[in-house]
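Protein of interest.
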Amino acid sequence: MISELCERFGMEFPLFAFSHCRDVIAEVTKAGGFGVLGAAGHTPESLEIELTWIDEQVGGKPYGVDIIVPNSMDAKDTPDITPEEVEARIPPEHRAYVESILAQNGIDTKDLWQRPRSGFGDNMRENGANAILDVAFAHPIKLIVNALGVPPQFMLERARAEGVAVGALTGAKEHAIKHCESGVDILIVAGTEAGGHCGEVSTLVLVPEVLDAVKDFPDVSVVAAGGIVTGKQMAACMAMGAAGAWTGSVWLTTIEAETNPAVKEKMLAANSRQTVRSRSRTGKYTRQLRSAWTDAWSADEAPVPLPMPLQSLVSEPALRKIDKLAESGDPQAKNLATYWVGQGVGLMNNTVSARSVVYDFMEDYANAAERLANSVAGD
């Protein structure tokens, strides 16, 4: 395929696949796309294991790593914060509310809470992020992406020194301009349809809006994201001027995906209206599968979610327990179970391999491009 990104990275098809699952990354890259491993939850040691395995699988084909270093978060400039200090920042009413949600659904809460580990949230601060970057840059990655906010200067400088392209996700025109001014190479323009952290503007509006706003930065490639789960959607975005597509949700129901089987089953049955933007998981708005958990956090009596990363200390212990029980068949836990996913979930109706998804994208894209070419020829 003729594409600026294919030429730049040596990929066959400008389809980027974000996933926390190394198997998805390897299969997409081997099939001609570009896998991007989500590394925010990794330690340097665990990331080394994952990237070494990917290197062995992909045979030199391109892949990347995605981290989260937000521009704003609780105690962002306090790298030596102790577990006791972190714990003191969590109001007791938030834990009590989580306990009430679980108790109302017949789930025991006695073993729910643990003291935050030393260094909690470090991966989102400079010291922890640099340790992750040390590992990432020791491998032949082609792209490093910041998933939330303008990439920090230390990340940009290190990437430049290593000859690695820098990408950043953006959900608003004004943020896109700041990204370009900082020196990014790739803008991942994510509409509100996207799973995970997302803004309020639809992909169909946001992509052309950003393309117009950043036209004075011709060296920056714009990649479309948000609800894209088919090749025809990818073709539509590229017809608007995008250089490729960034996808995440579509890989969650693949054979290789790490998704909890109970949640995967819910995704396969869901329609496009069964997602919701909620701060209940990370403290920032993320789109996720609507469930009794997200409904509870939108109730009038719900406390205001805590800032990132404190809300994760409230939500993740409960959601891990919910997932475990849901996987074992507990019906009330299944009702509560949720995960990040975009509105494209309504088009994700079958479980197939990640490689098949890439090939389906290619075929679907080609058919859409042919239809578009025929419409021009017809005129």
Observations:
- Residues 82-116+282-338 form one domain.
- The chain has a mean pLDDT of 93.
